[in-house]
Specification:
With 258 residues, the chain is of the alpha/beta class. The protein is built from nine helices and seven strands. Strands 3-2-1-4-5-6-7 form a seven-stranded parallel β-sheet, with helices on both faces.
Length: 258
């Protein structure tokens, strides 16, 4: 089947991706990977996703976006409703939660409001999104939920990342719990755990020297790119990935081995 045939296949699964506003980021790479599989793709981010939507549409995909602050649980259901309507009315079959609050602060500067927001975006939003889309998945006895964790949970790189690392640990726990709860409905739930990746967000919060140091510690001596996660995502959302659930799959060039 040609790429054009796949894109316009009437049974293509509707996919939602959070945190995809940056065209160079992991969320956008995930959205492109899903569009390449023929999925209509909806993007949720508090920032405009116009550039990524334009890229997806230019490639022949059906795409839409809506602005939503994922730290506000009450805003999530209406945002998903809008996207599903705009994408043709079918229920979401694939959810990828990539959005993350990356706020850093050492313990003595970490206030409750900051910690609460990081957890809200990184963990609570994932649970609320899953709650919203799981019934539609269950009706079809097919669903794929993928969360984007972090190998910092396995190997904290240094101080000031307490809120972020705690949230990623919570996200891995949520992934395992949902896998058990939703499995009888034909829904798989997995996490991809990236390493330090060449994105604008990572460079904004980390010195360039860190990229050099991490690269030398990896088994594969190259800086990770957002496209490195497309292959494993494609497997996890496919029929062939239907027996994989509750797993955290590390894609970090061999920095963490367990």
């Amino acid at each position: 089947m040609s790429d054009v045939d796949v894109r316009h296949h009437e049974n293509a699964h509707v996919a939602l991706v959070t945190g995809a506003a940056d065209p160079t980021g992991i969320g956008a790479a995930c959205a492109r990977a899903l569009a390449d599989r023929g999925c209509p793709v909806g993007l949720l981010d508090r920032r405009p996703c116009d550039a990524v939507v334009a890229q997806l549409r230019a490639s022949g995909a059906r795409a839409a976006s809506t602005a939503v602050d994922l730290a506000e649980p009450a805003a999530i259901d209406p945002a998903v409703d809008r996207l599903e309507h705009e994408l043709g009315g079918d229920p979401t079959a694939i959810l990828v939660h990539c959005a993350a609050d990356l706020t850093q602060a050492p313990l003595q500067a970490l206030d409750a409001a900051t910690l609460t927001r990081v957890l809200a975006v990184n963990v609570v939003a994932a649970a609320m999104l899953a709650r919203r889309v799981a019934p539609g998945m269950a009706r079809r006895h097919f669903g794929r939920i993928v969360t984007i964790a972090s190998n910092t949970f396995d190997r904290p790189p240094g101080p000031a990342m307490t809120a972020y690392i705690a949230s990623k640990g919570g996200l891995i726990g949520l992934t395992r719990s949902l896998a058990v709860e939703l499995g009888p409905s034909g829904i798989t739930v997995n996490a991809i755990s990236p390493g330090l990746t060449d994105t604008a967000g990572a460079h904004g919060g980390q010195p360039d020297a860190l990229f050099d140091r991490v690269r030398e510690q990896q088994a594969l001596k190259r800086t990770l790119q957002p496209t490195d996660y497309a292959g494993i995502l494609a497997l996890l959302v496919s029929e062939q990935g239907g027996a994989i659930t509750g797993q955290t799959i590390r894609v970090d060039a061999g920095l963490v081995m367990v």
